[in-house]
Each structure stands twice: as structure tokens, then as C-alpha cells.
Specification:
With 265 residues, the protein is mainly α. Helix content is 78%, strand content 3%.
Length: 265
């Protein structure tokens, strides 16, 4: 449980996220592995069938396959995007429930987090898709709209899981909580994303260097699957922990959530 439920600065929220992440590390990785490992196996098989020529490192630290034919590249990219949305949705849903329980000191029954995630899975996917579309629209405004969408809808998934709101209501609730603290929220989201991207970047650069020195397409595809699995298992729960800590911080700031918790205890 996080002591002293009070408003926190950006650094303090990240510290709380690290504390939550460490406290439930084994459980978080175990739940994430249930979906991440089978999904990465599927993606590896897709890459093997497409035979990528090499991998390029993107600005976010991800390694993307470069294929010899446009049709193969489009097909592989589509599969990766769809499966990626489903993977992140499940990991975010399960992680949110586990981290929130640790934050308030609640010992949930065994399997409760997974059951909660399963019940709200479609709503989480819908939120992820709508937020992603909002970010794409934001690209038309010199990337400024991307940051706006990331900040304003940042706590929509915790709202879906913890408050059991419907999709549109959850997104509206997220805007309600974040709009008065926009820069504070954006600072937390950006900082957590940068920390997680550092690990992605290091592993992706290593893969790119291997590709440049003659790694075979088969070995590259397998290595990419291993790297993606490691980065997702290690970074996705941390980012979710930071978002949950941010969610409680916003409620404490605007709704005296700390007082409510004290009365409940």
C-alpha cells in the first residue's frame, strides 16, 4: 500500500509507480506472460513467413521489419497492429487491477484481476482504439494533438476497470480528471514512456546492429520475438503502474480521495 495518500509531483508519482511495480512484480509479469508469450509466438511465425530483410529502429525504440515486397509488408504490419492492440489491452487491464489493489492495500481473491480484465476486455479494446484514432487525428496538428490525446485520455483505462464505466463515459471521465492538470499529466505520461523506451531502444539497436552484420532473416525474426516479449513483460506493467498512480493522484487532488480512503479504512 502507498502511505500518505496525498497529491504528488511528477517524480513522486514515478517513485510510487516503481514501488508498486516492485511490490507486485512477480504477479504482474506472470499475468502479462499469459497473453504476451503466445502472441509473440504468433507474430514470430508471421515474420518468419514474411522473411524480413532487416529491422529498423523507430524513435520509440521499437524495431520494425523491412520486407522485400510492399504487399508482404502491409500484411505483416496489419497483423502486428491488430495483435498489438489486443495484447496491450489485456496487459493494461490486468495490470491496472493488480496495481490499484496494491495502491490501496487491498488483498484481492486469487484470479480476481484476470476475471476483471476478461469482463472489461472489450471496453478496454474500444478505448484503446478510440484513443489511437484520436492520436492519428492529432498528427494533422503538427503532433500537438497527439500529446493532447495522450494526456486527456490517459486514465480512461483505469476508469473502465476501477469505476466500471462504459467506453464513452470512461473517456469523458478521463477528460474531466485530467484537463485541469494537463501539463502535470503530460509530464507523468512522457516521463514514464521515456523510461520504458530506453530499454526498448537498447534492445532494438542491438537487433539492428546484428541485422547490419549479416544476421539471417530467420534468426532476426526469432530474435525480434524474444526482444518484444522481454520489453512488453518488463515495461508495459510499469507504464500501467504509473498511469494508475496518476489516476489516484488526480482523484486525491480534485475529489479528496485520500479522505474517502481514510473513512473507508
Amino acid at each position: 500500500m502507498i502511505p500518505e495518500l496525498r497529491p504528488r509531483g511528477i517524480g513522486e508519482i514515478l517513485d510510487a509507480a516503481v514501488e508498486l511495480y516492485r511490490a507486485r512484480f512477480g504477479q504482474l509479469v506472470r499475468y502479462a506472460a499469459i497473453v504476451v508469450l503466445p502472441v509473440q509466438l504468433l507474430l514470430t511465425l508471421v515474420f518468419l513467413s514474411a522473411q524480413p530483410d532487416h529491422f529498423n529502429v523507430t524513435i520509440s525504440g521499437n524495431a520494425t521489419p523491412q520486407l522485400s515486397t510492399t504487399r508482404a509488408e502491409l500484411a505483416a504490419t496489419f497483423v502486428v497492429l491488430v495483435v498489438g492492440v489486443l495484447t496491450h489491452a489485456f496487459v493494461a487491464a490486468v495490470t491496472t487491477r493488480v496495481v490499484a489493489d496494491e495502491y490501496v492495500g487491498y488483498a484481492e481473491p486469487p484470479g480476481q484481476a484476470a476475471r476483471t480484465a476478461a469482463r472489461r476486455f472489450l471496453a478496454v479494446i474500444a478505448v484503446g482504439v478510440l484513443v489511437g484514432l484520436s492520436e492519428l487525428v492529432g498528427l494533422a496538428f503538427c503532433f500537438v494533438g497527439v500529446f493532447a490525446a495522450q494526456a486527456l485520455f490517459s486514465v480512461a483505462i483505469p476508469v473502465v476497470i476501477l469505476e466500471r464505466r462504459r467506453v464513452i463515459a470512461a473517456m469523458g471521465r478521463s477528460v474531466e480528471l485530467t484537463r485541469a492538470h494537463f501539463w502535470h499529466v503530460l509530464g507523468v505520461i512522457t516521463s514514464a514512456s521515456i523510461l520504458s523506451a530506453l530499454l526498448n531502444l537498447a534492445l532494438a539497436i542491438a537487433l539492428n546492429l546484428w541485422s547490419a552484420h549479416g544476421g539471417s532473416p530467420t534468426s532476426l525474426a526469432i530474435a525480434q520475438g524474444v526482444i518484444n516479449s522481454l520489453t512488453l513483460l518488463l515495461t508495459a506493467p510499469f507504464v500501467a503502474a504509473a498511469i494508475v498512480a496518476l489516476y489516484f493522484d488526480l482523484r486525491i487532488r480534485d475529489e479528496a480521495f485520500d479522505v474517502q480512503m481514510a473513512l473507508a479504512q
